[in-house]
Amino acid sequence: MFDADAQALRERQSDGDYLLPAYDDWCFSRVPGTVADLLGADAGPRLPAEATAGYDDVSRVVVFLVDGFGLAQWDGERDRIPFLREFERAGRVTPLTTVFPSETAAALNTFHSGALPAEHGVVGWNVYDPDADELFEALPFLRKDGTEPERIDRADVADCESVYPDLAAAGVETHHVTPFPSEETVPHTYDPEDLSTFSDAFAEAAEEAADPSYVFAYLPQTDAVAHPEGVDSEAYRETVAETFARVEDAIATLAETADGDAGETLVCVTADHGLVDTDPERNPDLSEPPFDLVSDLRTLTDGTPIRFSGSPRNVHLHLKDDRIDPVYDLLTTELDARVFRKREVLERELFGPDPSPTFERRLGDLVVVHRDLGVWYGDEEPGNLGFVAMHGGLHPDEMLIPLATATLDSLR
Q1: Which of 183-187, 275-279, 358-362 has the lowest mean pLDDT?
Q2: pLDDT by residue (tens digit) across 343-375?
Q3: Cα 257 to Cα 236: distance, rounded to the nearest angstrom
Q4: Does residue 341 register a pLDDT over 60?
Q5: Domain with CATH 3.40.720.10 in the chain
Q6: Homologous superfamily of domain range 1-119+158-275+396-410
Q7: Rounded to whole angstroms, how far apart are CA atoms 363 and 102?
Q8: At residue 367, what are phi and psi to the nearest 5 degrees?
Q9: Rounded to the nearest 5 degrees, what angle is found at the Cα of 263, between the Cα atoms of 260 and 265?
Q10: Which GO molecular function annotations are given, in alphabetical order (predicted)?
Q11: Residue 17 near residue 7, CB atoms below 8 Å
Q12: Would you tell me how many other CB atoms lie within 10 Å of the CB of residue 4?
């Protein structure tokens, strides 16, 4: 069943050509609290009750998070991937918005904590922290030169606590099937470059998990191939097909290893964000005319311009005080984009309510969200302007994601 409220959510959250997060109800940020609630734990706000109506006596929740596979991608691949149609018939697909920014670094920190970006302070893939005088990539916590930041600890990248201690305190065992280990859960790692290794890692988790349990499986391959190739490419479609073949195999493994009633296992498929194809020939370069913004930027204490904050669909500009207004005027004249001043970001609660000091100091003086292109610095990262599919902004195709749910017995 495809939830009929997708259009209603779209209309309610629309702001012109942009779509705003539904933080108060139908938001990705509420999935961890919902999973916890189904398993008898309290880990923060949950989705409205109708999102999981009919799922009673759940003792195991399995979440497959397919990176970048938003609602538009689900719709676009439905005819080619029988699994998606079969899942719709067996269960339901509920539309949600993701958080802003619609980026993996921000969204996954939310997913593992329940905290919104305004709380945890990960403003995008790239983060500038003035207290630490550091520029770094939140994932994988490295500077642009490949070295690890020296003036900030990995634990301080996000200002939040994970949900997993709360789950453990309630007796819920958590297993992660991811390309990287998790210290707070039982890890089952695999090689992201070789999807065949996912199956063995997932089988290990399914066999070892003692109920009540939560199994989280993360698949980043579709997002990775979409960036250079776009969502209409053959390479993307092949990766989507392989990804969902692995998900389908994993569900079969669940059925083989299930103890007792398979109706007590809830299977979920979701995404951290969707994708929008840009035009690399037209993606604006902030280091070139008419912008030439590098000289307007504040610098680190060593004189390095603070170019990298946010992402090409969520650009945070940390500007010299006397350049904020002129740059704002230039960008609003030259770009088909929303340019938010810091005050407006906070007033509109774009990243969520209750901003933390960590978020406020990392927030740019201006935040640039183009309608459908990527905006970045070609002098230092020309490859980012060459990407086709991107995410991070407020386009409906980036912001709307599926939460597909079905009991294991209905999928057999």
Answers
A1: 183-187
A2: 999 999 999 999 999 999 999 999 999 999 999
A3: 32
A4: yes
A5: 1-119+158-275+396-410
A6: Alkaline Phosphatase, subunit A (3.40.720.10)
A7: 16
A8: -120, 120
A9: 85
A10: hydrolase activity
A11: no
A12: 8
Q: What is the largest CA-CA distance in the chain?
A: 67
Q: Which residue has the tokens 């958080």?
A: 99
Cite the residue boundaries of each domain of the chain with CATH code 3.30.1360: 123-154+279-386
Rounded (10°) angle between helices 221-229 and 234-257: 180
Q: What is the dihedral of CA 10, 103, 249, 402, to 10 degrees?
A: -10
Q: Residue holding tokens 């097909």?
A: 241
d(CA 42, CA 170): 8
- pTM of the entire structure? 0.96
**CATH no. of 123-154+279-386:** 3.30.1360
- What string of H, E and C letters represents the secondary structure of 153-222? CHHHCCCCCCCHHHHHHCCCEEEEEECCCCCCCEEEECCCCCCHHHHHHHHHHHHHCCCCEEEEEEECHH
CA distances from 60 to 128, 251, 262, 300 (A): 39, 13, 9, 48
- Between the CA atoms of 141, 402, 240 and 371, what dihedral angle is there, to the nearest 10 degrees? -70
Q: What type of residue sits at position 268?
A: C
